Amino acid sequence: MEKRGNGIEDKKLTWTKGTKYLLDFMFYTGILVTASLPWSVRWIGEQMPYLIEHYEEAVIIYFVLGIAAEKLLWELRKIFKTVLEENCFVKENVISLQKMGNWSFFIALMAGVRSIVYMTIAMGVVILVFLIAGLFSKVLSFVFEQAVAYKEETDWTI
Predict the structure, then answer these.
(1) Residue 5: its pLDDT value, please?
(2) What whole-number distance in Å separates Cα of residue 110 and Cα of residue 61?
(3) pLDDT tens by residue, 146-156
(4) Which is the most buried residue in 9, 39, 100, 148, by most CB within 10 A?
(5) How far apart are CA 58 and CA 64, in angstroms?
(6) Are 62 and 71 in contact (CB under 8 A)?
(7) Burial class of 140 by CB neighbour count within 10 A (0 to 12, 13 to 18, 19+)
(8) From the centroid of its chain, how far is CA 121?
(9) 121 exposed, middle or buried (CB, 10 Å; 0-12, 13-18, 19+)?
């Protein structure tokens, strides 16, 4: 007979797997969106003429933002893989969290550069969100680093 987990464990696994699938969807969709920028910016520019006036800048800035977002999602997907393997307190996750913080700060910076071309309230929100995400990732990496140290110390004790 197959062993079944308790309800809480089943819910945690369902949420974790669901989030992993969402991240995978976002990652692969992000590749398509980033690759289609030369066409999609022109198409969206039909409704927003200002975007067409700055077509080259918009494509370049959004391409750089797309690549940075993909790198961030890549690191997050790596972390979720260790969560599903129930081995999340590893040095690789500390490194991934550090990289995620760096990419978040870079996205905030590039969003600021984009705001020079044309500013919107939404871009101000994006900058704030990625600054907070960067700080959160950096602090969480320190927490994970300490957890990894405790785990390694405990492994040596046993």
Answers:
(1) 56
(2) 7
(3) 999 999 888 77
(4) 100
(5) 10
(6) no
(7) middle
(8) 22
(9) exposed
Q: What is the pTM of this model?
A: 0.85
Q: Which CA distances in Å does 88 have to 8, 29, 81, 96, 148?
A: 19, 26, 8, 11, 9
Distance CA 40, CA 74 (A): 24
Rounded to whole angstroms, the Cα distance separating 137 from 148 reads 16
Angle between helices 91-117 and 121-157 (to 10 degrees): 170
What is the 3-state secondary structure of the chain? CCCCCCHHHHHHHHHHHHHHHHHHHHHHHHHHHHHCHHHHHHHHHCCCHHHHHCHHHHHHHHHHHHHHHHHHHHHHHHHHHHHHCCCCCCHHHHHHHHHHHHHHHHHHHHHHHHHHHCCCHHHHHHHHHHHHHHHHHHHHHHHHHHHHHHHHHHHHHC
**What is the Cα–Cα distance from 122 to 120, expressed in whole angstroms?**
5
